[in-house]
Amino acid sequence: MHTQRFLVAAAAAALVVPALAWSHPPDGADFQADRAAAFAEADANHDGALTAEEFATFEQIMRQHRAARHFQHADADGNGVVTLAELEAMRPPGPPPGRRGYR
Ligand SMILES: [Ca+2]
Ligand SMILES: [Ca+2]
Q1: In whole angstroms, what is the distance from residue 69 CA to residue 54 CA?
Q2: How far does residue 85's CA lie from ligand 2's centre (Å)?
Q3: What percent of the chain is predicted at pLDDT more than 70?
């Protein structure tokens, strides 16, 4: 019955591998978590909806979160500061320079 035991172990391994892959969620999941956290933080009266004033706070928090994520991404060696070399080595998240602005 060694074969059966091997199959169980293989099945368990197949379940573990996708779980490990989730420990590094894609940016989309990060963004959703950020948005949920920012919403909760901005909803000052906790009624589950944002007034115009609360929405302005929400936007401000989202900007800060985005800046913090960009900073972490730019700080390649993780020493807490971003050098010009690190900025130059980093792939820009937006459109390439010279093609700024939206249509
Ligand atoms: Ca509210
Ligand atoms: Ca650095």
Answers
A1: 23
A2: 9
A3: 63
d(CA 83, CA 96): 20
CB 71 within 8 A of CB 82: yes
58 Cα–ligand 1 center, Å: 11
Length of the chain (residues)? 103
Question: Which phi-psi region, left, alpha or beta, contains residue 93 (left: φ > 0; alpha: ψ -120 to 50)?
Answer: alpha
Closest listed residue to residue 38, CA positions, set 73, 66, 3, 76: 66
Predicted model pTM: 0.56
Question: What is the per-residue pLDDT across 42-88, written as a single tens digit (0 to 9) for each?
Answer: 999 999 999 999 999 999 999 999 999 999 999 999 999 999 999 99
